Amino acid sequence: MSANPPPEPVTPDARAPITKPLLTQSWLDLAFLHWAVDPAHVAALLPAGTTPDTFDGTAYVGLIAFRMHRVGWFDLPGIPYLGTFPETNVRLYSVDERGRRGVVFRSLDASRLIPVVLARIGFRLPYVWSRMDVEADGDRRTYTSSRRWPGPRGARSRIGVRIGERLAEPTALEHFLTARWALHNAAFGRTRYLPHAHPRWPLHRAELLECDEDLVAAAGLPAPAGDPVSVLYSPGVKVRFGRPVPAAGARS
Questions:
Q1: Domain-embedded: residue 86
Q2: Which CATH number covers residue 126?
Q3: 234-247 burial, b for 16+ CB within 10 Å, e for fewer?
Q4: Bridge partners of residue 55, in order along the sequence
Q5: Choosing a second label site near 71 at 20 to 30 A (CA), which of 4, 12, 24, 239?
Q6: Closest by alpha carbon to 12, among 168, 214, 209?
Q7: Residue among 54, 62, 66 at smallest CA distance from 34
């Protein structure tokens, strides 16, 4: 049996354009918080056929809070109400048997029930319905979330950041944590690879003002100890998703 190829390079620009999107949306007002985690804690939580993607031997868990804006199908206009809502996700980083890097979502809290149900049924993504809010006050952003369904009920987060200067050139680690061009997820008995594309991230340094959360532990990971190793902010990007394909033995 031949060995799997090495992971593809980390690139700040999308690996390929999405000319015929399955979904379109915008991600706005994003706060990226990351903690280092032992790859052994990550491996058991990933879909079959994927392994932890690491940076200098270390895996990372991300807590990402933002505003989803105008989710839409194909190239149709995005939906203004049902397609627009706050979201906070817990994510890990993966690489599949073809060497393709991706994101694995352990949970995605969102404040609109219908999109939560559709994403759970149609894409088998672990969306949960939560009370949520995003507040903007000058250079400060505050993101709050309290879980409703399916649980664990009451799992919560409150994140406050102050936006700093625009990064002229993110570090290699910052690219590794943000420049992700696909997700891996288990659905209908197989692991799928779902590519997406968007402009290069406009990233800012950010100061963490508060972080009170138990979403990471609720996602099956050790509760973070200490401050995040990386705190970033982005005003956002427009995103196009392609169609899912099998994670192994498929062309992207």
A1: yes
A2: 2.40.400.10
A3: bebbebbbbebeeb
A4: 58
A5: 12
A6: 168
A7: 62
**Over the stretch 86-102, which tens digit does the pLDDT of each residue have?**
999 999 999 999 999 99
DSSP the chain: -PPPPPPPPP-SS-SS--SS-SEEEEEEEEEEEEEEE-HHHHHTTSPTTEEE--BTTBEEEEEEEEEEEEEEETTSPPPSSTT-EEEEEEEEEEEETT--EEEEEEEEEES-HHHHHHHHHHT---EEEEEEEEEEETTEEEEEEEEEESSSTT-EEEEEEEEEEEPSS--HHHHHHH---EEEEEETTEEEEEEEE-SPP--EEEEEEEEEE-HHHHTTSPPP-SS-SEEEEEEEEEEEE---EESSS---
Residue 4, phi then psi, degrees to nearest 5: -65, 150
Q: What does the pLDDT look like over 123-179, one tens digit per residue?
A: 999 999 999 999 999 999 999 999 999 978 889 999 999 999 999 999 999 999 999
The pTM score is: 0.94
In a domain, residue 195? The reply is yes
- Domain of residue 45, residue span: 23-242
